[in-house]
Amino acid sequence: MGKSGVGGWGFGGSAFWLLVSVGWLALAGRGHAASFQVDSTSDAIDQTPGDGVCQTAAGSCTLRAAIIEANAVPSVDTIQVPAGQYVLSIAGRNDDQSLSGDLDVLANLLLTGAGPDQTIIDAAGLDRVFHVASGVNATISAMSIRGGAGVDTGGGIANAGTLAVQGCRIEFNGSDAGPIRLGGGVYNSGALALSVSVIADNRVGASNQVGATGGGIYSLTALSLNGARVENNRAIGIQSLGGGLATSVLLQMSTTDVRGNIATNGAGILQSSGEAFINASSVRDNLASQQGGGIRVLSGNLELVNTSVLGNRANGSGGGLQVQTGDVVLRNVTIHANLADADANASGTAGGAQLNGSSARVLNSILAGNHHGTVADDCSGTLTDSQYNLVQSNSGCVLGTHDFSADPLLAAISDNQGTSAAAPTPTSPAIDAGDPAGCLGTQDTNLVVDQWTTRRPQDGDQDGVERCDLGAIEFVDDALFGNSFEGP
């Protein structure tokens, strides 16, 4: 096995985080910031909002009281929430002042817990958990957000502001009431950046409903995921979309694993429009009852770099990737062990990738070991620019310059430092088979690492010339170094 680690980010995600950071620096100097220490797990309102003191009628500082007090003062306030389970219990969905139902964040706020296993905010089905209002800059960190029940949008969080979620778990939330049903875990209509967080076991929709979208996340605007895990979420019902996440306008995703999600279409990721840039990530073991087990693109532009699409299933077409319209670029991508026509009723093709868009550029990639039913089927559609790829079964695609067909001899799919991949074994024909001029990433600059941060290129075949490998993982013979480079 080769050296491994966590891949880098090069799609403007850093610019997104810089924008958030600059916003906080500007805000930090405004007003007199207060700091509130929550000291009670009960749910009660603040006694005198705006007096600068977090205090309920009982004399304690609850989470709800702290947020009400922070909302009353135009500054960047900090709320520290110690370990404990905080269950929301004041009924009333239609309030937007945090007096009942969910916790409405109406002013700039830093909200910090003791860790996602220690600080648990549970709406217990009363309402969603958090609502971040338009114009607000907020950071929520180190806590679990669960038990939310949104009407229409956002079971766990509904964000209309600029929100950073760091080191959190967003789990066991749902949005299945009302006529819209968007975002079981999170609904985003502002700017949302999630880092080192888990979005798991959320749901949107119900069996008799139509069009539920975004089991884990629904983003109408700008969404950044960095070091996240989106798993076991469900978009339920007729023609449901995006079991893991549904995106339009802009998605920037790095070192993120999207796994085990379920929907009618686009079980892992559903891109309805806009731009999506995915780097050093994995999309694995998702299930669509119709099209696009791993990823489905309805329109827009999708670019994958140093990314693995593995073990996904669709009862229709596009087990790994299905592009209906739009442009797609694959750079050092591995699409492997995906299945179309998973229910074996002869209704689907393209186990690996169905590329029906106006443009498909595939470079230095591996499409292999995919099937529809029992038939080997790695791709279908027109590749407008295809160079230095290994396509094991090319009956549905016309190969381009320096493309070839072979068994890539990949190792079993494995996890490492947050993402999954199938690495080349020592005799793989993918080793040193990339473009000799260099494997190009975004903006046509040479990639310098792979999905797991192994340096690219390497001299994997020991011929004295360094040349990048095909697919998401660069092979390194650990025996040459006398030790193992595998991560924990």
TrEMBL record:
List the source organism: Ahniella affigens
Known SUPFAM superfamilies for this protein? Answer: Pectin lyase-like
Transmembrane intervals: 6-27
Keyword Transmembrane helix part of the UniProt annotation: yes
**Keywords tagged on the record:** Membrane, Transmembrane, Transmembrane helix
Q: Which InterPro entries match?
A: Choice_anch_Q_dom, Pectin_lyase_fold/virulence
Reading the lineage from the top rank, the first entry is Bacteria
Under NCBIfam families, the record lists:
choice_anch_Q
Q: Decide whether keyword Transmembrane helix is in the record.
A: yes
Official protein name in the record: CSLREA domain-containing protein
